[in-house]
Amino acid sequence: MSVAAAGVAKTPARGIATLAKPAEWQLALPLALAYAAFFLVPLLLLLAVSAFEDEKITVLGFANWRKFFGDPFYWKVTFDTVKLGFLTVIATTLIGYPIALVYLGSSPRWQRVILFIVILPLLTSVVVRTFAWIVILGREGVINQTVMWLGISPAPLRLLQTEVGLVMALTQIEMPLLLLPLLSVMSRMDPNLRDASAALGASKWRTLFKVTLPLSLPGLIAGCMLVFASSTTAFISQFVIGGNRLVYLPLLIWQQSLVVYNWPLASVAALTLLVSVSLGVVLIATLGRRSKGYVHA
Amino acid sequence: MTSRPYTRRKFLAASAVVGSGSLVWRPAYAKGSVTAAMYPGTWEEAYRTHVAPALKKAHNVDLGMTPLFAVDQIAKAQAARGTPPFDAFVLDPGPRVTGIERGLFEKFDPKRLTNVGKLPAGAVDEWGVTVAAQVVGIGYNPKKLPRPKGWEDLLKDPWLSRLGMTGFQTTFGTVSIIEIAKRFGGSETNVEPFFTEIKKVLPKVAAIGAPASMPALFQQGQCDVTYTNTQTVDTLKSRGVDIEFVKPESGAVTFFTTVHIAKGSKEIDNAYKYFDTVISTAVQTALMQPPNNFVPVNREVKLSVNLPMANLDEMSKFVRHDWSKINPLRAGWIERFNREVSK
Amino acid sequence: MLGDILPNKPSSKGGQVPTRSADPSISVRGHTVDLDAVTHRYGTLTAVADVSLTVRAGEIVALLGPSGCGKTTLLRLVAGFLRQSAGSVRIDGKPIDALPANQRNVGIVFQNYALFPHMTVADNIAYGLQAHGRPRDDVRKTVERFLEVVRLGEFRDRLPRQLSGGQQQRVALARALAVEPTVLLLDEPFSALDKSLRLDMQIEIKRLQRQFGLTAILVTHDQDEAMSIADRIAVMNQGRVEQFDTPINVYDRPATLFVTGFIGTTNLLRGKTLHSSNGTTTIALDAGVQLAIASERHFAPGTPILLSARPEQLHLYGEASADRWPVRRRFALPIGPNTMHDLETRDGATLKIVEQRIGAIVDATGEAWCGLRTEARPSLFESSSQP
Ligand SMILES: Nc1ncnc2c1ncn2[C@@H]1O[C@H](COP(=O)(O)OP(=O)(O)O)[C@@H](O)[C@H]1O
Ligand SMILES: [Mg+2]
Predict the structure, then answer these.
(1) Which domains can be identified in chain C, with CATH numbers?
(2) What is the Cα–Cα distance from B40 to C41, expressed in whole angstroms?
(3) Is B232 in the same domain as B306?
(4) Is A200 on the interface with C (CB under 8 A)?
(5) Does ligand 1 lie within 6 Å of residue C69's CB atom?
């Protein structure tokens, strides 16, 4: 009975599927066009502009590419940018993952409270949040007052315009980007799995490393990729907190494009940023997939 | 035919909105109207409050504003090629020179301004008219530091270890560093002595920040002395921050913000009316009051006690710079600053 | 209300309870589970109220009741996922209340199986063994053995999502059994399976339970399932156990009106008692008849009562008699070899009767008389005790 019914049902279903295909393809068309107009075309323009030698964009040539990649300073800036991204990813993960675990173990009501607190920073502008960090990290800021009160250091620590301070600020600023995908994956995880693990005799840690972590990995990877891409390109936060002491690619792009009008060199820096961010994102995805293999084994 | 460039202008104005993340304030129906590019923030606020109503009252012309930084104005005008997205520029000396070099301005006839006689000498030329001055010097916290005498003091203790610096990205930053370099044997075109000196003391400098963050850094006590302009000092003071402006021994530095008619503008008459309104005694007086704190350019304005001069003619003794010489060197200086200052 | 808890006499099926594993290579013997006045509250809601049960070694007990009556909660208390608000749980007489779930050694099969989706079938089965720190070689051998027990050897490297529902359930069983649990808990194990597979899995579970001499507690809201698989059934309602007895007793001797209504179909007839003596109570039904009913309970004369009679306990006659009451036939439905008659009594009650279609009554509608079959033993309840 059921086999026959299934057989009957299948044929029309397949027919609909083949009919639906071109329609679906057409539905994606506006998105594809928008993608072409707002991403592909600007990207090609960027490439084209980078292939000029002079600031007025009249002489073709690769002088700016040679200048950029022939200079160890620019290599260092690129390296620092990627390093900043990874430091932020590590810091957000170390702080964010335990928060996600607390979320997982909370009642629905507390979960809503945690989610609200996580989203809260997104409701204020990056500029406001960044300037708030000047207040926190400053010589007379909250952190230094605490440090001096505890007697850890006799003089205020220099946190503003240091990598440590910048990573601290970015950790808070980028935290929602890590937590939102992570919490969404975690809340879709079957709570019975953790109970099943416990019933089979597994300790809390074994359950964490063998069940919770591998199953939340897709959310963690997505979050890490967002944090990486966002922190490496966070011009306002990098410049306001890092000042001129810390030079990253976005600052170079801003200076070259908007202060000295050297668009070809700005394009080279922008493309370098694009490529290094993409490579970083791919690396995170690969690491994630690898470690998934390890965790399973 | 006539409507086409207009819609195109609208489109470009709309792109400017997208680009700057702010709103174009443009009258829907205007008998006479003029669209001015305007610095976002303080300038836009002050011009909306004081200039727009005065222009409407005096000439029945509506003022529309497109919020754009100087560099964006140059970039947009250049991209538009002859049909600019606005009628009037407002520019600092560096971009002004770039605009002249790239032929972005209509020729300017000072005789068409009724108020031109109230301006100090040299405030108008064949390209435009000065609407505001900036006076640059040293700002310091008198509760924490003794009064510095000149630019060279900034690189000495006790000021050095409390110094907040910015680079060559802003006009006031650039002129201040040039002045420091001059104290150590440099000149308008040679800032090498500055780099030599700063390299020796770099780790002691309290803050090397983004220009926009300097007021916040000062307010938070991250630094207690910095190069700055009178407008910033007055604004911080009005917020209760302990800060005093010092005119260095070698003289305060001044530079002017000028307005220009965009090449290809269809509203040239109204642009002159707009400029005339801006430099009128009433408007200049209003713009000098807190919270705007502009330095006026109209000699009939009774100067505020906060300003470091008794009258505008004194400003002719202030240090000024030739931006046609500075501009070609600036890219190199910015790059150099990046290298020397970052670890 | 709960006069029926903890019958200590041996089960009527006692002889069938195995005490030894059928497979000599696997020696898991049954353990007893005692629930002693267990209560659980979620905030102000009492989900489990003062439940006492004894599950004997090697016995399958079904917790049967409508959705939301507290079955899952009770199971989770035994597993240790929840800590009861009051009362105590003992395994083999020893209280386990202080033990966390991972030290109770209780096997559980979830309604949705809760297989680890990122692990193969073999890894799922090995999980508990590894958690117990078994040597690698031992783990491998045990996994092989259990793959064979549930006949899934060729699927060892598949992921759970690549298996059918029935196969997934067998993996869940193997995973739970591999660590040799003291007791196996099954939460609605068949509800996710389609009907044809359900019976196969019921047989499979029964087979494994016998093979390992397991003590098992099974949660279900399906009475047929409970009747066919369980040695004893605890019927639950609103957090309480209404009756704890063998399937036959629960069906034939329902302790409460709730049990009568929940298990099988029944007909309720309103009336009052006339007199009660020597285990027989004479009643007058509003439908228009006097009947003598065998009843262990003594009722004061004049007590309003409800008579509960199963459809198969009633019979339809063509003519009147002293122990029959008149009914109006509304319609009849053929059900296989039987016919189900829908009848209305004089006092407006609806009766359902199942008759074999032999042909005594030809008309589908019209007047008829209804009476109890000779051996039928319907139940009597005070009508104030109606839920
Ligand atoms: N985690 C919980 N928090 C609050 N109430 C719950 C929770 N789990 C179950 N309940 C409530 O407890 C009662 C019994 O639930 P449950 O044991 O799941 O019933 P069953 O398994 O018999 O359907 C229900 O009313 C249910 O809504
Ligand atoms: Mg349940």
Answers:
(1) 33-257 (3.40.50.300), 266-382 (2.40.50.140)
(2) 61
(3) no
(4) yes
(5) yes
